[in-house]
Input
Amino acid sequence: MDLSLPTQSAAVSAQLDTLNAAFLAQKSTYARAAMPSLAERRANLETLLQIVHQHQAAICDAISADFSHRSHEETQLLEIFPAVSAIKHAKSSLRGWMRSKRRFASMWFLPARTEIRPQPLGVVGIIVPWNYPILLALGPLVAALSAGNRVMIKMSEFTPKTGALLQTLIAENFAPDHITVVNGEADIAVAFSALAFDHLLF
Output
C-alpha cells in the first residue's frame, strides 16, 4: 500500500507559479513607481467606475448563476450601487486625502514642526468572501487604489462565475502589475494569504 502524500497537480502548481510571479511583478513595479499622482489615481477609479457601469447585466447574471438564482435587483441594490457610490466618493475626496497635514510637535521638541504625509503601503492583498463578492472585492479595491497601492484580489471559490468575470474585466482594463484577480480553491487561498503583502484585507 502506498502511504505517501499525493503530489501537487500540475494545474495547481501552474496556478501557484502564476500567483508568485504576479506578486513579484507588483512588488517590482511599486518599487519603481511608488507614488502615483492625483490624476493617475482618479483615472484608475474612473476606469473601475466604467467597468461597473458597462457590465452591470453581466455581473448580475454571474452572481445569480453562482447563487442558483439571486435577483438582479438585490445585486444592484446591495452590491453595484454601494460600489459605484464608493468610487464616486473616493474620486471627489482624493485631493484632500492625499494632502499633507501639519501637526504640532511636543513642547520638548520646539521649534520643530511635524507633518503627516499620506503614502501608499505597497502591494495590498484582498481576500473576498462569497456572500457579496462584487462589493466585497470592489470596496477594498477602491480604498487601495485611492491610496496608490498595487492590488491582488483572491475571489471566493464558491463564486466561480463571478470570479472569472471580474478576472476578465480587470485584465482587460488594468495591467497585471497594477491589479490582478486570482481564482482557485482553498490551496490557492492558503498560498495567497502567505504572500508577504504590505497589507492584507479580508
